[in-house]
Amino acid sequence: MNPFTGFAHMLSQPFMQHAFVAGTAVALLCGLVGYFVVLRNQVFAGDALSHVAYTGALAALAAGVDLRFGLFAATVVVGVVLGLLGGRGVTDDVVIGTTFAWVLGLGVLFLSIFTTHRAGSDSSANVTVLFGSIFGISWSSAATAALVAAGLIALLLVVARPLLFASIDVGVAAARGVPVRFLGPFFLAIVGATAAEASQVVGALLLLGLLSAPPAAARRT
């Protein structure tokens, strides 16, 4: 059998095309964002935001609204809060751990509310957010994922140079006038939005691997 023929046949399927577009966009976004996550030693913050994404989605489902609203609202807000509480734009593990505990508790509460009062024909929505559904997304969802990823990459590139400076030496960067107190929350807001978008494609559980493993491996080479 010709492997190229089989590959072409696979890509001729609409669901594979949707998965390729969305998966490629999310992979590029997570790779670029993950580089700074690893460089700034904020992998724990990325892990926390992946759980925030799940909790935010459950909150939206429990309220009967679009889960994307809960995903983006929760992750972006919590990301900004983590950056502000850390001081000098650097997150604090104690702050993240405390937030983690509250987020997990709220997630259990919203899961209980959803399964008790809201779950019906959409009873598996919480599982989809947890594990993703890359082969089950529509073309409109794939196109939206690509557009959101492009927008977040553009935002990251705008602040990439000062962010890199602040990531290497926050003290010297602050002395040179780099707005480190702004860059910290702004970057974590981007990480939060990345978590919200990636959770819809690969799931909240795989998000940490995308944010940390490839960039960490690249730094070792």
Write the layout of secondary structure elements.
Blueprint: H1 3-11, H2 14-39, H3 43-63, H4 67-86, H5 93-118, H6 125-131, H7 139-158, H8 160-168, H9 170-175, H10 180-199, H11 204-220
Helix pairs in contact: 2-7, 2-10, 2-11, 3-4, 3-5, 3-6, 3-10, 3-11, 4-10, 7-10, 10-11
Proportion in β-strands: under 5%
Order of helices and strands: HHHHHHHHHHH
Cα distance spanning the termini:
36 Å
Number of extended strands: 0
Tell me roughly what share of residues is in helical segments. over 70%
How many helical stretches? Answer: 11
Q: What average pLDDT do the residues reach?
A: 85
Low-confidence segments:
none
Envelope shape: globular
Please give the radius of gyration in angstroms.
18 Å
Q: What kind of sheet is the major sheet?
A: none
Structural class: mainly alpha
Q: What would you note in describing this structure?
A:
- There is one protein chain.
- The chain contains eleven helices and no strands.
- The longest helix has 26 residues.
- The mean pLDDT is 85.
- 42% of the residues are buried.
- Helix 3 runs antiparallel to helix 6 and helix 10 crosses helix 11.
- It is mainly alpha-helical and 221 residues long.
